[in-house]
Specification:
This protein is of the alpha/beta class. It contains 23 helices and 31 strands. The strands form 5 sheets. Strands 7, 8, 9, 10, 11, 12, 13, 14, 15, 16 and 17 form an 11-stranded mixed β-sheet that branches. Strands 28-29-25-24-23-30-31 form a 7-stranded mixed β-sheet, sandwiched between helices. A 6-stranded mixed β-sheet has the order 1-5-2-4-3-6. The relative contact order is 0.08. It binds zinc ion (2 copies). The site of one zinc ion (ZN) has 9 residues, from helix 4.
Length: about 800
């Protein structure tokens, strides 16, 4: 069978537009579970075309007969205005067929034979039509918290297997009632083949219990229109009661789409603080949900782009600049100037927010850094000591999926945590993956990635692979993706770091597989390149916490000339010891003292600085000895550690309670009106960057009474100047004009903005992250791209 692409081979005109034609059209992309067949059905009927449409293992297959002009228009419309949630990858046509003399247009049963690699849709926020019905007393799904349709509702979180049919989702626990079934079967209905279709009569329900699991008695609270079925009101009463409990200060575990949230009144300082205590989460900011963009605007500045980001069908947590007058208590997000807000994305959120005039804290349902709870039994066990009540439902969540976190940088999305609403939709790449690759990602903020042709199926956020539960999510997640997308990777890419659990996993796999170790920061740069669909050599700047270097030391302040094949390290921050290893990450004062000693020698102990006067001399002596002898003091060139040190020196943080806290708080205080920076110095022909002069100037400023706000800003600007200056030097030598910026340090918006402005002013083309995070969540994509390039070149 010969399939030609339409663009290359326009339909034969055969001399007359009146002549009947028959064309088979294969549409590939995200075209199943998104209302594609009913769309084709109504399109064909409107144009009086005959034939049929069906789902097969590669996409949607259409067979039509009619006038060739009409068919051409039909195809144009498929391309130009497909259903909102679909993503048309390609439209291929075959027109060497004999007439079939179709008499009508039909939707046929799925054809599930053959090879299958089919992108699946992510979970989608409640659509406007469903929302209207949800609050329409005449609608039979009035106030039903699981209302959904072909254009909205859960997908990825409920799929157990493919094809995406109800029997392969957790909705198989509920048998459709006759009315739902009729809608499901009716091609003209907007719930035609909406797999999670349900109603009060047949679908899942919410119920409210106390912490011990006893159901809370619900009083009749709502005046009901006589036309309304009494069943509808029961749901509303559960939500009214939940609302009142929240307003009274209760902490409630709420089961949602991808897992449990812990909710409380965001304006109730005492409740928020209690939640912190119970969750053992001392400082890390909580996300909030508000009923409308207007409500969010009472607390944050929201640009047009940010408003669109909040309101799109993914409904991520969007990081927004807090307004000075906001009454959100400090306990929600201590020490930072950004607040994370999201809008309701499931019908039950809308019911929860109906008539509620304030935001709620909606943080992931877990203890401290554990993965989010998604299984009822597990949630009851793990959250019982945190939540006063549980608002649960009886639809199972198959795949735990956290809320995504995103932000807008210079008008463009810059994702921070890619999860619900994004996964498992693939990242499309500019190049083709020659083989199917599994890339295992990093240790923290892990994602894995599987590839097929031009698709990189980057997983949802798995989390920090430091406990068994997360490791299980990782290994089970990989198996699930392999099954869903019918992938059989024979190449495994992994990080150099021998202690990463993702590396150990890769090495434990079958030796028949081709295994490719990838340096962490090369992966960062490659991920930024793949994110931006660029190829060839770039100046790669990778700045982050720590990554294992090819010399066995910990890198993190790196300048490369890189492409997908290799990364040549051109310059890096000078190595310093981290006395105590991981303890030095949790206690930035150790790094600060090491830098002070580097810059000023033992003299630093005489400085009249709060940092020094408070320093425990005995402890410093021990630390200094460790650093000098190299005992448990791995060396690092990390820029993240330098930010930590400065945060400690200006008096912000001697110890951190979550990853990145010291740097985040340093960014928060930076005086935005500041224009000058300090000077880094270059050694060994410009290949080693020394921070001693920066530290000396910074200390001098502090001794002269310059505020920590100004010192923070000057430090940020010195790093921005450094990056621009090193990039210019590399350009002069290598004739390269493109710069890719990657690594967790570039989540610092004050730094990133200043770096981009300087580079652009120098005429560089600058690439930052958008579709995958700059942090380690993007590593898996970079690993896959690098493994692919090296395989293609026969280097492996
Ligand atoms: Zn809908
Ligand atoms: Zn029903």
């Amino acid at each position: 069978m010969q399939i030609k692409t339409l663009l290359a081979n326009p339909l034969p005109n055969a001399g007359a537009d009146f002549m009947d034609a028959r064309v088979q059209i294969l549409v590939r992309g995200i075209v199943q579970g998104v209302g594609f067949r009913p769309f084709i059905f109504s399109l064909a009927n409107r144009r009086s075309l005959k034939g049929h449409v069906l789902n097969n293992t590669t996409g949607v297959l259409i067979d039509v007969e009619g006038e060739s002009t009409t068919i051409r228009q039909f195809i144009d419309e498929i391309k130009s205005s497909p259903p909102p949630l679909s993503l048309v990858e390609s439209v291929e046509c075959r027109h060497d067929l004999d007439p079939a003399y179709f008499t009508d247009f039909r939707i046929l049963e799925s054809d599930s034979s053959g090879e299958r690699v089919l992108p699946l849709s992510a979970d989608i926020a409640t659509c406007a039509d469903c929302l209207r019905e949800l609050f329409d007393p005449r609608d039979r799904r009035y106030l039903y918290p699981f209302i959904n349709c072909t254009n909205c509702g859960p997908r990825f979180t409920i799929i157990e297997d493919v094809p995406y049919d109800r029997a392969n989702t957790t909705m198989r626990d509920f048998e459709m009632c006759d009315r739902c079934h009729a809608e499901y079967e009716d091609a003209s209905d907007r719930r035609f083949h909406a797999e999670p279709i349900a109603c009060q009569a047949c679908g899942p329900r919410f119920f409210l219990t106390d912490a011990s699991g006893r159901e809370v008695a619900i009083d009749r609270e709502v005046d009901i229109d006589r036309e309304v079925d009494i069943d509808n009101a029961i749901d509303r009463d559960v939500f009214c009661r939940t609302q009142r409990l929240l307003l009274d200060g209760a902490i409630i575990a709420i089961k949602g789409i991808g897992g449990f949230h812990l909710a409380c009144d965001a304006l109730n300082d005492e409740a928020v603080s209690r939640l912190r205590e119970r969750k053992y989460r001392e400082d890390k900011p909580f996300a909030m949900m508000a009923g409308s963009v207007e409500k969010i605007k009472e607390h944050c500045f929201v640009s047009k782009a940010e408003e669109n980001m909040l309101a799109n069908e993914r409904r991520s947590i969007v990081l927004l600049e807090k307004m000075p007058g906001s009454i959100i208590p400090r306990a929600v997000a201590p020490g930072v100037t950004k607040l994370g807000f999201m809008l309701p994305y499931s019908p039950h959120h809308y019911l929860l927010f109906a008539g509620l005039d304030r935001p709620l804290v909606m943080t992931s349902g877990n203890m401290s850094d554990e993965p989010i709870s998604y299984d009822d039994k597990d949630a009851r066990a793990r959250l019982a000591s945190i939540a006063d009540y549980f608002l649960c439902h009886n639809r199972r969540i198959h795949i735990r999926t956290d809320d995504s976190v995103t932000r807008v940088f210079e008008g463009r999305e810059m994702i921070v945590r890619r999860s619900r609403g994004y996964a498992p939709a693939p990242i499309k790449t500019a190049f083709k993956f020659g083989r199917e690759i599994l890339a295992c990602g990093a240790e923290l903020k892990n994602t894995f990635c599987l590839t097929h042709e031009r698709f990189a199926f980057v997983s949802h956020h798995i989390g920090d692979l430091e406990n068994l539960e997360t490791l299980r999510s990782f290994t089970e997640g990989i198996e699930h993706f392999k099954r869903l997308f019918n992938l059989r990777p024979d190449v495994v890419a992994y990080d150099f770091h021998p202690e990463y659990l993702s590396t150990k996993y890769a090495l434990s796999l079958d030796d028949q597989l081709t295994k490719v170790a990838v340096q962490h920061h090369h992966a960062h740069v490659a991920s930024c390149m793949a994110d931006n669909c660029i190829e060839g050599e770039v100046i790669g700047v990778a700045m982050d916490g720590l990554g294992f270097g090819s010399d066995g030391r910990f890198w993190g302040g790196e300048f490369f000339v890189a492409d997908f094949l290799e990364a040549e390290r051109i310059a890096h921050l000078d190595y310093i010891p981290m006395p105590g290893g991981s303890k030095a990450i949790r206690e930035p004062w150790r790094i600060a003292a090491v830098y002070l000693h580097r810059a000023l020698g033992d003299e630093f102990l005489n400085l009249d600085l709060p940092f020094v006067t408070k320093l425990d001399r005995g402890l410093w002596a021990a630390i200094h000895k460790m650093a000098r002898t190299g005992t448990n003091s791995p060396e690092t060139s990390s820029m993240g550690r330098l930010f930590d040190a400065v945060s400690s020196l200006v008096g912000l943080r001697n110890a951190v309670r979550y990853e990145g806290q010291a740097a985040i708080e340093l960014e928060a205080i930076a005086d935005r009106s500041c224009r000058e920076g300090y000077e880094f110095q270059m050694a060994r022909n410009g290949s080693i960057i020394k921070a001693e002069a920066v530290i000396r100037s910074l200390v001098e400023d502090l001794l002269n009474g310059i505020s920590s706000e100004v010192v923070s800003a000057k430090f940020h600007l010195s790093v921005a100047n450094l990056i621009a200056s090193v990039a210019r030097t590399i350009r002069d030598e290598r004739r390269l004009n493109r710069v890719a910026l990657s690594g967790g340090v570039f989540q610092n918006m004050f730094l990133l903005k200043n770096v981009c402005h300087r580079l652009e002013a120098s005429g560089f083309e600058v690439f930052t992250h958008s579709r995958v995070p700059p942090n380690d969540g993007g590593i898996s994509l970079g690993q896959a791209a690098i493994a692919n390039a090296n395989l293609a070149r026969g280097r492996i």
